[in-house]
Amino acid sequence: MVIPFSYTAKNLGARKMTTTLTAAGMALVVFVFATVLMLQEGLKKTLVDTGSPDNVVVTRRSAGTEVQSGIDRAQAAVVESQPEIAYGADGKVRVSKEMVVLITLQKRDSDKPSNVIIRGLGDEGRAMRPQVRITHGRMFKPGSSEIVAGRSIAGRFRGAGVGEQLRFGMRDWVVVGTFDANGSGFDSEIWGDVDQLMQAFRRPVFSSLILKLGDPARFDSLKQHLESDPRLTVEAKRESVFYAEQSEVLANFIGYLGLTLSVIFSIGATIGAMITMYASVASRTAEIGTLRALGFRSSGILVVFLVEALLLGLVGGVIGLFFASFMQFLTISTMNWQSFAELAFSFTLNPSIVAKSLAFALCMGLLGGFLPAVRASRLNIVDALRAP
Amino acid sequence: MAGTPIVEIRHLFKSYQRGGQVVPVLHDLSFDIAEGEYLALMGPSGSGKSTLLNLIAGIDKPDSGELRISGEDISRLSESGLADWRAANIGFIFQFYNLMPVLTAFENVELPLLLTGLGRRDRRERVELALEMVSLTDRSAHYPSELSGGQQQRVAIARAIITDPLLIVADEPTGDLDRVSAGDILGMLERLNRELGKTIVMVTHDQRAAERARIVKHLDKGELVDGESLLKTQ
């Protein structure tokens, strides 16, 4: 039988101030740790949600992003003739030939310029993104100088709201609608008619081709056909993979930076926990002696103090996560280094982050509590009983 | 009168290391304590009485010699074996009560029972009985800080008898109490000895406390002096 859990819990409660301060230190670290994971997750989710697994993105070989890619009409015609591509109800192949350029727009609040993606696309391209819904105004009309702005762009950039005008490609473009792409990367784009945009930017080539697969399982066959055809210099990726790769560098950077910060902070918090636990052992030396005299084994004492330290970590973890969960209401934007464009995303909390954060907090507690617990368990009974 | 010996001490030696020097505390001590005895150990500070009590209680180990309790040589037990042995055989009463401040009187008394295989209901029954014996039934939900010194020592007595141990060891049980409370506690120990037949070994400075015991042994410089004085007969 072990020393009751209530003894441990009540001891933590008995030293309210020390417990609160130590748990607060740990909570802060867990907050940073969880926030970084949430940021990373939010970024990944935004970009992964952008892609659909039965869509295929075809870009120029080793272009990496659509902005860097170019596919001329001859190559586009070859790509379109592949047998794996689905046919629409109208009997046409389901291919969207798109043009993607970056333009610089000024932010509404700070006037600072930032890169924004302009995507030119046709009816098929819109049909391939069913998650995109017009929330204000209407969709642009093909063949016109009309554009629609994603939710994250419309509010934050000058001239990007419905009824406003933007000037680029030596033309004025009227914003006729705002769309919601359900948290995906398209929320940070401006869409217009592909032919109009290609003319305005004097682009003879498409940036990318988006293909709808007839059977998603035939992706490998399509990829093999496209990439081995001597007439083509293209590569094909599932849209979901394509966008996931776009988030890799930034997500990894945030991850490493956050992990480094968390680890450095956690050293401080762990030392804090250690000091608290040493103080706890010191102030309870006579109690430890008494418990040992009553017949509790030294291993039992070790467990008592380890559990106390773990509990301290758990309290810190729960508080840290509680505050971190409010970050979900926040949307932030940053430059995605791979596309060089502004990308808005929100902090995302999921069960895996909760588990990781709590495990992290428990680790801090365990590390901080280990040495004091060993010390407690090794106290000489007679000496401990003599302690004041 | 005294029955078979429950504690047999033979040629017991104990010394401490202090600042690189060996300080002898107990020197070739041999004596028995009979079952049902109530023994008071007296002596000046540093005479070794507390060390002797610690050895008998199994919280310290002798350098050499035999220390048999109920036939078992406890000086040969391992650390954890000794812990289990204490849980089963020894009831402790300390000068400063040594109750767990975060536990209620009930929980403090229950603590030694957690080391037995008893179920929750059995534990509850025994704790209630023990608290009744020390007249603290109405204080079972109180924390030590809410009790007087005398009441705390009564809780400690209840804790010491809860497992029905072979031996009760008391280290200056009245050392921190006023005269009335001290008398109260001594009366209780006396009743434990007389009515329940508990063997008690008590270390004390207090002549009045020692007078309540059946036998007083004086220790000086680690040795028994003038044999023993039989203060009381039944």
Describe this structure in words.
- The complex is a heterodimer of chains A (388) and B (234).
- Chain A folds into two domains: 5-48 and 246-386, no CATH class; 62-232, no CATH class.
- Helices cover 51% and strands 20% of the residues of chain A.
- Chain A has helices at 5-14, 16-50, 73-80, 123-127, 151-156, 194-200, 219-228, 239-283, 285-294, 298-325, 351-378, 381-386, and strands at 55-60, 95-106, 113-121, 133-137, 146-150, 165-168, 171-180, 189-193, 208-212, 234-238, 331-336, 341-346.
- In chain A, a hairpin with a 6-residue loop joins strand 2 (95-106) and strand 3 (113-121).
- Chain B has a single domain, classed as P-loop containing nucleotide triphosphate hydrolases (Rossmann fold).
- Chain B has helices at 49-56, 79-89, 105-110, 120-133, 149-161, 179-196, 207-212, and strands at residues 5-18, 21-34, 38-42, 64-69, 72-73, 90-93, 167-171, 199-203, 215-220, 223-230.
- In chain B, the strands form two sheets. Chain B has a six-stranded mixed β-sheet with strand order 6-7-8-3-9-10.
- In chain B, strand 4 (64-69) and strand 5 form a beta hairpin.
- In chain B, helix 5 (149-161) packs parallel to helix 6 (179-196).
- The longest helix of chain B is centred in the C-terminal third of the chain and has 18 residues, at 179-196.
Which helices and strands occur, and which strands form pairs?
The complex is a heterodimer of chains A (388) and B (234).
Chain A: H1 5-14, H2 16-50, E1 55-60, H3 73-80, E2 95-106, E3 113-121, H4 123-127, E4 133-137, E5 146-150, H5 151-156, E6 165-168, E7 171-180, E8 189-193, H6 194-200, E9 208-212, H7 219-228, E10 234-238, H8 239-283, H9 285-294, H10 298-325, E11 331-336, E12 341-346, H11 351-378, H12 381-386
Helix pairs in contact in A: 1-10, 2-8, 2-10, 2-11, 8-11, 10-11
Chain B: E1 5-18, E2 21-34, E3 38-42, H1 49-56, E4 64-69, E5 72-73, H2 79-89, E6 90-93, H3 105-110, H4 120-133, H5 149-161, E7 167-171, H6 179-196, E8 199-203, H7 207-212, E9 215-220, E10 223-230
Parallel strand pairs in B: 3-8, 3-9, 6-7, 7-8
Antiparallel strand pairs in B: 1-2, 1-4, 4-5, 9-10
Helix pairs in contact in B: 4-5, 5-6
